[in-house]
Amino acid sequence: MTSDVQDIEPIEIPGNWQFRYNYFAGASASRFFAELRENRRVMGTRCPKCERILVPARSFCDACFVRTTDWVPVADEGVLETFTIITAAFPGLPEPPVVLAYVTLDGADTALVNVVTGVDCSDIDAAAARLNRQPRVKLAFKDDIQGRITDFTFVVDE
Amino acid sequence: MSARLAIIGVGQTPYKRAHRDKSSSDLLWEAAREALDDAGLDITDVDVVIQGVAPDALSGENAVEKSAITGVGIPHMRVNTGGVTGSSAAFAGASYVASGRARAALVVAVERMGQSVTSQAAFNTIFDPILEKDFPLTTITMAALRASMSMRLYGYTPYHWAKIAQRNYRNALKNPLAHLHKEYTIEEIMNSPLLAWPIHKFEACPMSEGACAVVIANEDLAAARNPAWIQGIASTTDSYAMGDRFRREGATLVDLVTLRMSAERAYLDAGVTDPLHEIDVIELYSPFSSAEAMTYPALGLCEASEGPAFVDRQGEDPEMPFFNPSGGPQAGNPVSATALVRIAETALQVRGVAGERQRPDVRRALATGQGGATQFSTVCVLGTQRP
Question: Cα separations (Å) of B70 from A119, B43, B67, B76, B218?
């Protein structure tokens, strides 16, 4: 730094980004959400090449780079693949504790991310030990269904 | 990569929570000027400028790189691959020089996230707005989801991660550019506040600002200077969706398959067949100590199942490479620049100009970069020997 600006108090100018958007889900996610809303079921799409059932449903398989073909429903229960229990508060994010997990529903080859509700987090280590055993989980739909990924949560099925 | 090229200049600002006395362009310019001076070149001597800046929301400035280093009359481009941005920019610069399109490339990356008041909320915006952004997915929770899986599969305990973190903090004491200069005991790390199970605060990286630059040059320019020869450099990518990476054998979320692929390609070019014994220094892009543990098998240093034992042997086995002499990302994580800092630090080690943090007799060093939802990885092998 040159000497002529050495004793200047640095200025901070407050700022705020506040833009509004409408995110376009596209046809496949729109149908996926419509199935959630109308039929309370989770749909996947099949890759004709690797034959995986991809959940959430999507229009193409990015591994094989081909268009997916048929739509297939998967089960409303499955296996918890991995999880975290968020215990610290961060500005702009939900109040802790929050359990976040990836779950592979029966019949699917890929996992969905969502929150796990109803976990007793009074003892974090005990809750973590229980979740680390990869429990079975089920979907729990909310009363107010809007056709969004937040229409359901996972609950431990024990 | 068959052409011979080298890093001949390095410039870095210090890394700290906030550079309140510097504008974004000041940061970029200072790192770039230092790298050019180190290389004995001027801006008119480079044929391309490649800048690395990760998501704009972190700084609250669109295209923060726009205001500095125009390099009038030459190509300029920006790279954004999340955490791997800096080393992706280096890969682009190296490719430019290797192709013969440039004799020298200036690669510079800047992080300005000290301006952010709600950084984890800004990080949440990098996730898919249709299927993911409604959930508290952040860089921390993304790492925690992998860490818990790694504990279950391989038997890591909080002790292993605390041991890695302790070494990183200790190494940073010798690096005047590091953001954090504080030593912690293993107990202090294990007892630090839990952020997202199983990750504790002192197993995570800080929020840092700063800029880093390197000059990559062809053989003609490099031979007359003090070069760190690029013996191998590779960059690979994977599916974005983390949910797609659980049921792939040998390529799950914790296998870091792209880091493995990048390492294999870079080793092939560098002639490395036994990385554990043929590499002296390794700078890892691992903002979390649990993430560092996942890199060892991907880099071919141990089997995945032996990971915890590999950590136990660290510090006792003199045959092992020396990890993170700079302190690594846990002692300073200027996100957009962090992966380039790894390359810059290994270049300093190979050139023998790393100051107090210099390791003895460094003949070959390795730098990693990882970013996005770990779908992007780079590996760069630098050495004293011309390839």
Answer: 54, 9, 8, 8, 22
Among B157, B194, B236, B294, the strongest candidate for a mutation testing the A interface, having the largest count of A CBs within 10 A, is B194
Q: What share of chain B is helix, strand, coil (3-state, %, to 5)?
A: 40, 20, 40
* For chain A, domain boundaries: 22-156
User: Domains in chain B, ordered, with CATH?
Assistant: 5-117+206-383 (3.40.47.10)
Q: Which residue in chain A is spatially nearest to B62 when comparing CA positions? A: A17
Is-contact B371 B85, C-beta < 8 A? yes
Q: Does A44 touch chain B (CB under 8 A)?
A: no
Q: Are B196 and A128 in contact, with CB atoms under 8 Å apart?
A: no
Strand order in the sheet with A71-74: A53-54, A42-46, A71-74
Query: B197, A84: Cβ pair inside 8 Å?
Result: yes
CA distance B385 to B387: 6
Chain A, chain B: beta-carbon pairs less than 8 Å apart: 133
> pLDDT tens, B161-200?
999 999 999 999 999 999 999 999 999 999 999 999 999 9
ipTM given for this complex = 0.93
Q: Which A-chain residues 114-153 have CB contacts (< 8 A) with chain B?
A: 114-115, 124-125, 128, 131-132, 134, 148-150
